[in-house]
Amino acid sequence: PPNKKPTNHPTRNQQNTQQRRYYVCPGTSSWNSIMGRTENALLNIFNAAQSAAAHGGGGLLVTDWGDNGHLQPLPSSYLGILAAADFSWNPNPNYPSMASPAQARLRFGDAISRLVLRDSSLTVGRVLVEAGGVFRSVGRVPISNRSPLFNLVVLPNRASASPLVEFGYEAEKEGLSHTLATLQRLRSELKLASMSAPDAGLVTQEVDWGLRLLSSAARIGLLCVRRGGPRCDYLRLDP
Question: Could you tell me whether strands 59-60 and 23-24 are parallel, antiparallel, or unpaired per DSSP bridges?
Answer without folding.
Answer: parallel
